[in-house]
């Protein structure tokens, strides 16, 4: 959390990157005295901006304006944050801080999470996505076949947690689990009960499947790509 001090405000900036195979996370910071805010932006190593713009649309923090260049979007975040701090209006603005986590980046498949936390509010949200870097598409639940049966198994696994029945579109968010050699070991579905809202957002459930349990549900288009070592 940031604290406001009387006297002169000063800003310190630092920029660095966290790399994966197809993507990198650009990081910058804005500091007031001893308190710092970290800003992040995702950079995809492709001349095609379709995936990058899709990610921007999930959290529309610039009122519909979409950037082609991640460095410029990161700079816009920094400029906006500096302005809000200098005007002492950061809390009222509920500025959204995005955090990126690269979960899987191999053989043209990119699984990542984007978390946004609204400053001054308990609300936060997180989205999980799987993209095909080669054809620039959002895979989502198209990774699976026999979705109705898969959903029944999800609801069965959830039965001991809560009496919630999810729909097929709940299969679109998940984490590709890996071992220490980055080999695929299974999937954890992330599901939200939109009828049960908590102070920080909708109630979330995680439903894990081992590789053996899930591989028969993976569509042939991606099965070999995902399962090969």
- How many helix segments? 6
N-to-C order of helices and strands: EEEHHHEEEEHEEEHH
Rg from Cα: 20 Å
Low-confidence stretches: 1-20
Number of strands: 10
Q: Helical percent range?
A: 10-25%
**Strand order within the widest beta sheet:** 4-5-6-7
Overall average pLDDT? 85
- Output the structural class: alpha+beta
Oligomeric organization of the protein chains: single chain
**Strand residue percentage:** 35-45%
Architecture blueprint of SSEs:
Blueprint (H helix, E strand, L loop, with lengths): L15 E4 L3 E10 L2 E10 L5 H9 L11 H17 L3 H4 L2 E11 L2 E10 L5 E9 L4 E2 L8 H12 L15 E5 L5 E15 L2 E10 H4 L5 H8 L2
Antiparallel strand pairs: 1-2, 2-3, 4-5, 5-6, 6-7, 8-9, 9-10
Please, could you describe this protein's structure?
The chain is of the alpha+beta class. It has 6 helices and 10 strands, in the order E-E-E-H-H-H-E-E-E-E-H-E-E-E-H-H. The strands form 3 sheets. A 4-stranded antiparallel β-sheet has the order 4-5-6-7, with helices on one face. Strands 1-2-3 form a 3-stranded antiparallel β-sheet, with helices on one face. Strand 1 and strand 2 form a beta hairpin. It is globular.
